[in-house]
Amino acid sequence: MHPILLRGEGFTLYTYTVLLDLGLICGMVLTWMEGRRLWINPHQILNAIFCVLCTGILGARLGYVLANWTYFSEHLLDAARLWKGGLSWYGGFGGGLIGLIAYVAWPGRKTRLSFWLLADALTPGLLLGMVWGWLACWMAGCAYGAPATSQSWVVWDLPDIYGVRDLRFATQPLGVVGSLVTCMFVWATRRRWPVAGCNFLTSLALIGGLGCVLELTRGDDTLYWGGWRAGQWLSLVMMVTGIVLLTWRWARHRLR
Hints:
Number of helices: 8
Radius of gyration: 19 Å
Strand order of the largest sheet: 1-2
Largest sheet: 2 strands, antiparallel
């Protein structure tokens, strides 16, 4: 855990912020490359990236604030301090999805855009950004694992966000590895799908499945619905939605 990368007189550079920014840059570059491969107009892909980033960051912060409303209700100014960490993956994904839908459906557009094609172009960059996001959480101590009784390959001596060390599930390292494997798989298979949208929907199902597993190991505070972490429910919804829509897209293509 190295929450502070650089500190000077009146200046503090947080590792979380640096890694998250690197993830955004790498994700945008990868999205640009994929957009060119899919023959998407450069202006369209740039505009889509901008919309998704803006709404995604807003949704990620809003999701985190709502999940920790007990604290933020008494410290409203802290809600705007992104550089100190505190983003919800689920809120960010939902916000980015809303931004993409709004961009595609914007009235008065001269050329019709394909939501599925743009979603496919954005998918590898999203997954690469997830890798950097889990690295950022690892360094900052957020999204830490629950205490465990004995050390193993999934249980490490790790601190929580307050710096208290204990034997915990290695949630952040597992998130890094899981996201990286998912990203590599999606990147390797992205040319094999016969219809637009399958790459995005496959990723949605895999991300949801990964989230379901990782949520079982997390020890940070969150909302609970019916005894389950909110993230478990949301991951389950993502996984099921991805599988159902992927089956629908595939079956529709085969029936043509």
